Predict the 3D structure of the following.
Amino acid sequence: MTFDSVLHAMQQTLAGPLANPHMAQFGPEAVLNDDLHIDSVVLINLLVHLETDHGVAIPERDFRKEDFVTVADLIHVLLASPSAAVATEPEAAPANQDPSEITVHCFVSCLCAAIRRHEGLDFRPFYFGTWDSDFAVTAQQHLAYHSAEMTQDHYIGWINRLYAIDVSPWYDNTQSKADNLARFETLLHSTSGDRQLVVMLDMFHLPERDTKYNQDPFPHFVIVEPTADPEVWHMNDPDYRWRGDLPRAAILNAMAQPSVAGGYILDSTRARAPEPQDLLAYFNATFRPDANPLTDALRRIITYHGHTERPLALPELEIALRELPVLSLRKYAYEHAFAFFWRALGLSFAAFDAHCDQVEALCEGFRRLHFQAAKLAHTRDHAQLPDLIAALDALDRLEFTIKTALHAQFQTWCRTTQVAASISPNRSPETRAMLKGEPA
């Protein structure tokens, strides 16, 4: 394969089966996301078509978004050109480096933004259990990261218990959308200090924001604040680590979509550090040592769509797993947990980095699994199904390995904290009694 032949195959695929509406921008220097709106899901399907329809060999390697930006970059990666080689990462990092600036869960990230407003408060333990947070499987056996039945009550209750941060809904589901938006505008201009407004909006209808994920609909939680200009609002998107000013009308339009409804007031005026016994309870309440809900759900979905008695279901497997990239990102929450114990226990960076490598391997494994599933759906070749299940089983084993290592660090932290609590005059008898309990 030559550069020009792969370029031509990409053009044919995007213009043909993928029906990309932005082909006027296509060319070697076109930016994949900004110009062609190719997100991770479209990229997977592009690679599947290139391999199965055009004979382009897809390298056995991890595809990281940092490796390519333009069409030409991607072609060089596919051709394994020397210019596409990835730089070797250093084996160590400075002790003060923050290794956990990662996208995980939009609502949790908004709550963590309230925690991070206060110097000295560590937000990392609030990500405990987010790796197994709720998702839905539809009646059609499609994976969904959001549904109208989901609530945020779990996180609202725990952030109050752990950090004394109050979270109350401002959105009233018994009122009309127009009434709720009017109430939001009133609150926006009366909220100040450590009170913030969280809104749910549909990011697909906010093209001013580039999220690298062109999902439609795209329900997402962000924080909105006023500016000196009444027609311009400031949006803080903690999960994507983006903040900037956007037109008031654009934000209201994204909030007004029928695909979204919800919002909260965050009040961190009384924010404080969590008590050790509450962190212990939170970890135990969210840690599932004997189950990996996402891989369990994927196994059921793949088995359903791959059953020979449902030949028409197999092509739908690609659609059924479309939202897997959003859910697999939640596995990066393990890094937040390892970072907390790394700092609290004074562990070596090398040990922490090794755990992060396993987490990265898990997340990359889900990306490869998504590619395999899309390929199976496209070729309709049931002979590929055992390999797909085997890959899923391998991810299951890897995640259990990660959980075992994390639980061991949690147990060490419990023992260490128990000793510290027993000699601290500020600890109550109730605290000491709680810390004597064995972690789950």
